[in-house]
């Protein structure tokens, strides 16, 4: 079987998730190829030994930042103009015609909802539970505000009802997608939630989800998070004999320089060692201004930090949260958009994590939150229990099995 993976390669979590599933497909003896539009995290694909075709039009760094801002609700204007979607829907069918994939696996590469349907190639969407169709149409609460009291909880319940109602009724789609779909003879589903559905949707949640809360074409596969090759820097192995706590700060691909500087600045005076992969957000002057207890990297195989760290401070992306859970150490997480807040709230309910906000950073509450992660034995025990559960699950292998089965069922020559 030939499987084409098409994550949006400006998104680190989405790209690393696709790489893990692609490894499992390749290990099962099938052909894999990647496509993308951004160079930002393309090296994560090629360094894993996969072929990658960067298609036109290339997504600029500015456009990638705009898409992240839209995702977080900080902006409403997106770069998906009619001309951009039209050009994408020229590039994608050309690759499909040339390579003839049996299945296409996407993240949020929305143009393939047109191209794959026009080419009659089955589409698989590997995605978090949060904001999926099943989640949207069954949700009872939406994390609009930090629910630290009865009023906050009531607001979030009202927001959940409004979101659930809108999800079942909303029929809006960007004009650029409607126009190009019509040009290609593709009729997009009427409801927005249906238009964002693939033939098979693989839900990469680490939490048990009742089948009643999943749509008919959604399958719970378990956690999928980056387990990249490579070794930790030798200096980090010193922490095996550490004399004070070690805290990992990982902000993924959706933070900003200001938030990275603020979080590191608040933690720096603590009597801890800090390891961070927020280097991509920092200038040379920023790095030079940090104290010696902070070690800055652009990237680390974070799953190898198990046993070396005592707590984490992270954003709330599904992959980053799952990596933190697998570490067996409690964490504090900042939700930069609704999906991330849902992910963090699940962990907060389990007891291994706590969600904080930019207001907490601004008001200098973060050190106290981290101190609690380091010394709350109940939270540390919950983290160990969850880590044991996650290590027994292999969402990438389960995802690969679903993808291969779909390819075999739909392939015209099988």
Automatic annotation (TrEMBL):
GO MF, one annotated term: glycosyltransferase activity
Superkingdom of this protein's organism: Bacteria
Protein species of origin: Aeromicrobium piscarium
Name of the featured protein: Glycosyltransferase family 1 protein
Residue ranges of every copy of the Erythromycin biosynthesis protein CIII-like C-terminal domain listed in the record: 262-388
InterPro entries, A to Z: EryCIII-like_C
Coiled-coil regions, chain positions: none
Pfam families (alphabetical): EryCIII-like_C
Swiss-Prot/TrEMBL keywords: Transferase
Membrane-traversing stretches: none
């Amino acid at each position: 079987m030939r499987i084409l993976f098409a994550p949006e390669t400006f998104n680190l979590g989405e790209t690393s998730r696709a790489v893990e599933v692609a490894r499992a497909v390749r290990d099962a003896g099938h052909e894999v190829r990647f496509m993308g539009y951004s160079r930002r995290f393309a090296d994560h694909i090629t360094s894993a030994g996969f072929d990658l075709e960067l298609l036109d039009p290339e997504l600029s760094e500015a456009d990638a930042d705009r898409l992240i801002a839209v995702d977080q609700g900080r902006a409403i204007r997106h770069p998906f103009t009619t001309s951009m979607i039209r050009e994408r829907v020229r590039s994608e069918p050309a690759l499909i015609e040339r390579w003839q994939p049996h299945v296409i696996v996407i993240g949020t590469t929305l143009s393939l909802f047109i191209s794959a349907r026009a080419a009659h190639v089955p589409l698989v969407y590997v995605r978090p539970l949060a904001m999926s169709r099943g989640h949207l149409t069954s949700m009872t609460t939406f994390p609009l505000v930090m629910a630290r009291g009865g009023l906050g909880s009531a607001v979030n319940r009202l927001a959940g009802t409004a979101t659930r109602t809108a999800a079942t009724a909303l029929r809006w789609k960007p004009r650029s997608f409607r126009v190009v779909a019509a040009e290609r003879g593709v009729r997009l589903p009427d409801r927005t939630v249906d238009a964002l559905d693939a033939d098979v949707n693989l839900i990469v949640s680490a939490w048990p989800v009742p089948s009643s809360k999943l749509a008919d074409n959604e399958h719970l596969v378990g956690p999928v998070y980056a387990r990249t090759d490579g070794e930790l820097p030798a200096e980090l192995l010193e922490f095996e004999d550490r004399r004070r706590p070690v805290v990992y700060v990982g902000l993924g691909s959706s933070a900003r320089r200001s938030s990275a500087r603020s979080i590191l600045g608040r933690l720096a005076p603590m009597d801890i060692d800090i390891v961070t992969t927020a280097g991509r957000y920092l200038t040379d002057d920023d790095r030079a201004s940090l104290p010696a207890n902070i070690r800055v990297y652009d990237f680390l195989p974070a799953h190898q930090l198990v046993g070396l760290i005592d707590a984490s401070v992270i954003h709330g992306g599904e992959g980053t949260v799952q990596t933190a859970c697998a570490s067996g150490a409690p964490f504090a997480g900042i939700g930069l958009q609704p999906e991330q807040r849902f992910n963090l709230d699940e962990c907060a309910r389990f007891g291994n994590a706590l969600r904080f906000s930019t207001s907490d950073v601004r008001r200098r509450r973060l050190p106290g939150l981290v101190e609690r992660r380091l010394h709350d034995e109940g939270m540390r025990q919950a983290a160990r229990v969850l880590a044991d559960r996650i290590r027994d699950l292999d969402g990438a292998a389960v995802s690969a099995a679903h993808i291969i089965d779909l390819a075999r069922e739909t392939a015209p020559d099988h």
